[in-house]
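Expect sequence, tokenised fold; for instance:
***
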Amino acid sequence: MFNRCGTRTQRRAPERGADVEVQVNVSFEDALRGLETKIPVETTTACRECGGTGAEPGTTPVICPECNGRGVVSESQGLFALSQPCPRCRGNGTVIEKPCRKCHGSGRERRTKRYTVKIPAGVKDGTRIKLKGKGEPGESGGPNGDLVVVTRVAPSRLYERRGADLVIDVPVTYAEAALGATVDVPTPFGDRISLKVKSGSQDGALLRVRGHGAPRLNGSGRGDLLARLRIAVPKKLTKKEREALEELQKAQRGDPREVLFR
């Protein structure tokens, strides 16, 4: 590239802009359903006062007198000549005699922009969503960086997540576990399902309900809902309950701790 005086200039190589990373807080329910939200992002943009030139409006950068617009200077080292970026113009080939009062000659300013981000259904805590070209601007015509949105999903009061599967603790009485029962369980999508508890079910047993878990990000349906049975032991007993349990204890067969001594 040549300047107005016919001198060859050496422009700085294009450099890609830096990526910008921001976090967005998402409720557990919104993470399962997906949502569209706007997030504020502070990035570097061209100065609105000087249009990015760095020079006071009405003026323009001039050819650097130190390097004559070449962007490099040479220093003789005997048989060799060492070339390095011009210290005055920093390799740009031009200098700003009257810097812009708003950006002080940098040609850039910090500005907050709002971007609309689609959070897909099924995101997990720490999921990274990339918006290409929405990061910091590049140098010397280089491409912009990317905006990386990191989701922070709040924990659920009821559900534990295992990939696309959701685990919920379901309290059942001793009688329901021993005799069997049908119990209602809430799903994370607001409805209820009925589960059949088999007679003789043990504490911690998992009942799987297919297709009622979290959506998979690859679009292949949903995971499963796992109901983990927890036998609820009352802290206080009524007289009738105590009498019934005492009768049950008398009728109990065998010793459940016998397996410990085999």
In short: The chain is about 10% helix and 35% strand. The chain has a mean pLDDT of 88.
